[in-house]
């Protein structure tokens, strides 16, 4: 029998999305109780949640009309790098994470967002 895990605290993350008449996000604000973040502006959001019953990823991808193409390129580049770090930390799969980081370098080069 699996030991029950005791929850000692809960944290809350809230995302408020203001949309126009066509349901296009116009403004996103977020709060995080543990990060002391209150009404911080966001222009893009990628949220992935693993559903263990369906063994499937549920996702929400949003961006406001103010998110520039340049910002989106940088956002994706940084997100991909973070995913490599997270995957390596969670699984210890160093070699494939090195490959993903190599791809991130390629992505940055192709998107012309390499630091000078």
Topology diagram in text:
Blueprint: E1 13-19, E2 25-32, E3 37-42, E4 44-51, E5 56-63, H1 69-91, H2 94-110
Antiparallel strand pairs: 1-2, 2-3, 4-5
Helix pairs in contact: 1-2
Describe the model.
The chain is of the alpha+beta class and 116 residues long. It has two domains: 12-66, no CATH class; 68-116. The protein is built from two helices and five strands, in the order βββββαα. The chain has helices spanning 69-91, 94-110, and strands at 13-19, 25-32, 37-42, 44-51, 56-63. The strands form two sheets. Strands 1-2-3 form a three-stranded antiparallel β-sheet, with no helix packed on it. Helix 1 runs antiparallel to helix 2 (94-110). It is globular and about 45 Å long. The termini are far apart.
Quick summary of this structure?
The chain is built from 2 helices and 5 strands.
List keywords for this structure.
2 helices; 5 strands; globular; 116 residues; 2 domains; two-stranded antiparallel ribbon; alpha+beta; 34% helix; 3-stranded antiparallel beta sheet
Helix content: 25-40%
Oligomer: single chain
Through-space gap between termini:
56 Å
Low-pLDDT runs: none
Rounded to an integer in angstroms, the radius of gyration calculated over CA atoms is 18 Å
Number of H- or I-type helical stretches: 2
What's the shape? globular
Strand order of the largest sheet: 1-2-3
How many separate domains make up the residues?
2
Which structural category do the helix and sheet elements fall into? alpha+beta
Order of helices and strands: EEEEEHH
